[in-house]
Design a protein that fits this description.
By secondary structure, the protein is α/β, with parallel strands linked by helices. It folds into two domains: 193 residues, Rossmann fold (3-Layer(aba) Sandwich); 168 residues, Glycogen Phosphorylase B (Rossmann fold). It is 41% helix and 18% strand. It contains 14 helices and 13 strands. The protein has a seven-stranded parallel beta sheet, with helices on both faces. A six-stranded parallel beta sheet has the order 10-9-8-11-12-13, sandwiched between helices. The longest helix is centred in the N-terminal third of the chain and has 16 residues.
């Protein structure tokens, strides 16, 4: 049995669903965790090294100032993993007899592996979204990533898009694998659908343009009395979306539910015929990897209406499991919703195809075996 240490931002952050899945299930739940901090959300017990608990010495402060200055001269991020924290982490890995390290998110991988990737333990990085889009646009981040790659045993990406995006900057590794996060297809499965029920799930942020989703639905659904839209997720665009709903007089048929439990997310996906998500590249360059919510929607037999953005076309086969438009094509998005409401889309046929694709390609128990195989080979 292999033993892995997962480096991540927080143990266990409720938004990091698939990172938590790896913590819970990799190598039959034997993983240990090195986290930036611990949270109160801990559905499983694991041995944890909390990086925020390390007290820096006076020497560490001096070293940090020196490394910060020299890193700036070399065009690297100014913060390095040094001194007491570095020594404590290495001691933790050796004390726990760790066979391999998996850094969840590219930024963590670049920081950790560039610093301790030479201690005889194979180290991997998993890219998931913003780390391979917005963050990699930084020249400093790319330099640090290039240094880390020399010590990296392998890379994982949730989509081919992210792998290609890093390659466009010359950041490649011979041991690279595209493995989506996946979904539990036993848990996420269809039930009886409610006619003309639409759902959107995700943070109300720039890269999801929830205003386009709300406005498009309101315009097309105003003459279809039984059509409803439930939006699950909070964020800075919530008031803007609420104002659109008020302006269109659709308060009785469009609801912004904010953050919801996993159980409520599942219920809405199972009952909905259509899943909406208008993903775009944000002004800062943030983008999706392979959205978990879309994978869950496919497993629940939803017809996905979304955009040709990042890894979404790798999940949604146009005309077979859903329909896509270009980013910011609001007219085209409205037309897709209009086609759905006018029954031009065969919901039963496409919903079944979505379910079949998810079971065959996105079941997280199969995908975690692929991940374990690569880690074991190291």
């Amino acid at each position: 049995m292999k033993k892995i240490c997962i480096f991540t931002y927080a143990f266990m952050h409720p938004h990091h669903t698939m990172v938590n899945f790896h913590i819970e299930n990799l190598f039959s739940g034997t993983a240990v965790v090195c986290a930036g901090k611990e949270t109160e959300y801990q559905p499983v017990k694991r041995t944890v090294f909390d990086r925020s608990s390390v007290t820096a010495s006076n020497l560490d402060a001096a070293m940090e100032a020196i490394f910060g200055f020299t890193n700036k001269l070399r065009g690297l991020p100014t913060k390095s993993l040094i001194g007491n924290e570095r020594a404590r982490i290495i001691d933790f890995l050796r004390r726990e007899n760790v066979d391999a390290v998996l850094c969840e998110f590219g930024c963590i991988g670049a920081e950790v592996i560039s610093s301790i990737g030479n201690i005889g333990i194979p180290m991997f990085t998993y890219y998931r979204g913003y780390d391979g889009t917005m963050r990699i646009r930084s020249a400093r981040q790319r330099r640090l990533t290039a240094r880390a790659l020399k010590k990296t045993a392998g890379l994982f990406f949730v989509s081919q898009y992210l792998k290609d995006n890093l390659a466009s900057y010359g950041l490649v590794h011979p041991n690279s694998h595209v493995i989506p996060s996946g979904v539990n297809t036993d848990k996420f499965h269809p039930v009886e659908k409610k006619k003309n029920k639409f759902v959107a799930i995700g943070r109300l942020v720039d890269k999801k343009r929830p205003d386009i989703t709300v406005r498009s639905f309101c315009e097309e659904a105003k003459s279809v009395p039984d059509a409803t839209l439930s939006m699950l997720g909070g964020g800075p665009w919530q008031e803007r979306c609420q104002q659109i709903i008020r302006d269109k007089g659709m308060q009785d048929r469009v609801e912004l539910l904010g953050e919801q439990s996993h159980g409520n997310v599942l219920k809405h996906l199972q009952e909905s015929e259509f899943f909406l998500q208008h993903s775009v590249t944000s002004p800062e360059g943030d983008g999706e990897g392979a959205p978990t919510s879309i994978q869950e929607a496919l497993a629940c037999g939803c017809v996905v209406l979304s955009t040709r953005h990042a890894g979404i076309p790798e999940l949604v086969s146009e005309g077979e499991t859903g329909f896509l438009v270009d980013e910011l094509n609001e007219t085209g998005f409205r037309e897709l919703i209009g086609d759905a409401l006018s029954e031009k889309i065969d919901v039963g046929k496409i919903g079944q195809a979505s379910r079949n694709f998810a079971v065959g390609n996105l079941d997280n128990r199969l995908l975690i075996k692929r991940l374990e195989s690569v880690l074991s080979d190291a």
